[in-house]
Backbone:
């Protein structure tokens, strides 16, 4: 599939070794054509593109439902491509964080993505509460060994009926650990809590069955493993058991029932699928890129991608064993995806030297390098070259 992607090159036209798919995925070659198609449509028909075009913009977002539902394991009406990750998280929290005097705590992990923390902090303030009294943290695992399900379960049980919401990552962005989502939902529901996930690093990376697992809600971005371009559309999952309800929610006209949208009446009549969280009419150009990048997943299966990712990441892990570094990503295949994070004392210098040699990965907290081995476009030879360079540098 590599030939379906634009591989970044250096100034001499040599391909870079790109291990940053966990940050920004590469551009599928079909994106240009699909975006051009919509630009041409706009040029040809102006406003009439909304209804009269072959790919009418009025319902364009619906084209993302099928591929997204396959990626997260859901019914098609439970997912929507809309807004962006942090915006969607704020919207979903408004709906799903409904504290009472008894049940008001939120459980997260210590190093959750800061944007998620900001959203939670403001959300509790909106209810006249403080982060200090409401937000509980699962501590970062000792010696970077990965989170243990037992510890998380114990924390959930201890918080018990005070727990209103659990928000955890599908895949943790620093150590690349894949969380046991199904077990966490079970544990959370047992004490009566809502359970949601930030899937920024999970979608397009690990296999999920959000519907079957009874996840309440989830949100993600599309610019990492989905390769939909910088700032590409976000996405949400809301379990169908919530969708038909009279939810407390933020609203805009694009969340209204599409049949009544242009009656311009004051009543908000939410459509009974995940589109009810749409606020505005979406960017068709961004959705066009998203559509093209999602279509790449239809050329394969998530199981095939996982198998290929396993062989790539195993190759890297075997090589890392011979180096003086600490791999902080859990080694079990069930507990990780495409990203391997390594810790070393001179990571800043190594990161800089790798970049100078055309090897792209990223640096976190001064001593952690994160590398993603993406089955869509990375190949074993690149890993061998990277390991060779890393050995020399270390
Ligand atoms: C885990 C995680 N959550 C949230 C975000 C915020 O994403 P956005 O800027 O699309 O809102 C990111 C961005 O990289 C992320 O990695």
Residues:
């Amino acid at each position: 599939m590599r030939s379906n992607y634009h591989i970044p090159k250096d100034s001499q036209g040599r391909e870079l070794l790109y291990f940053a798919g966990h940050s920004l995925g590469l551009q599928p070659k079909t994106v240009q054509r699909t975006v051009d198609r919509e630009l041409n449509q706009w040029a040809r028909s102006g406003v009439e593109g909304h209804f009269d075009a072959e790919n009418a913009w009025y319902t364009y977002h619906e084209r993302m439902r099928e591929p997204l539902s396959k990626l997260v394991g859901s019914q098609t009406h439970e997912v929507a491509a809309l807004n962006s990750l942090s915006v969607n998280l704020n919207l979903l929290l408004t709906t799903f964080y409904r504290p009472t005097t008894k049940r008001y705590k939120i459980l997260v992990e210590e190093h959750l993505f800061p944007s998620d923390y900001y959203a939670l902090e403001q959300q509790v303030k909106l209810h006249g509460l403080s982060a200090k009294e409401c937000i509980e943290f699962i501590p970062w695992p000792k010696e970077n060994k990965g989170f243990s399900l037992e510890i998380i379960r114990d924390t959930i049980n201890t918080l018990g009926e005070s727990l209103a919401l659990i928000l955890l990552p599908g895949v943790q962005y620093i150590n690349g650990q894949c969380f046991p989502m199904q077990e966490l939902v079970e544990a959370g529901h047992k004490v009566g809590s809502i359970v949601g996930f930030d899937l920024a690093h999970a979608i397009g990376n690990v296999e999920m069955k959000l519907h079957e697992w009874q996840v309440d809600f989830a949100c993600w971005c599309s610019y990492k493993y989905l390769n939909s371009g910088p700032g590409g559309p976000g996405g949400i999952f809301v379990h169908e058991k919530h969708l038909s309800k009279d939810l407390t929610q933020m609203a805009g006209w694009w969340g209204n029932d599409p049949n009544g949208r242009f009656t311009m009446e004051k009543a908000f009549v939410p459509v009974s699928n995940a589109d009810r969280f749409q606020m505005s009419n979406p960017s068709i150009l961004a959705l066009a890129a998203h559509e093209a990048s999602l279509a790449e997943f239809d050329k394969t299966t998530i199981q095939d991608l996982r198998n290929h990712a396993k062989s790539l990441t195993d190759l890297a892990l075997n090589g890392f064993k011979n180096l003086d570094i600490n791999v902080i990503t859990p080694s079990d295949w069930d507990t990780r995806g495409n990203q391997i994070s390594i810790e070393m004392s001179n990571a800043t210098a190594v990161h800089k030297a790798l970049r100078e040699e055309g090897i792209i990965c990223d640096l976190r907290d001064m001593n952690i390098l994160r590398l993603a081995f993406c089955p869509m476009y990375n190949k074993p030879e690149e890993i061998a070259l990277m390991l060779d360079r890393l050995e020399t540098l270390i």
The two ends are 32 Å apart (CA to CA). The first helix runs from residue 30 to 45. The first strand starts at residue 17 and ends at 18. Residues 16 and 358 are 5 Å apart (CA to CA).
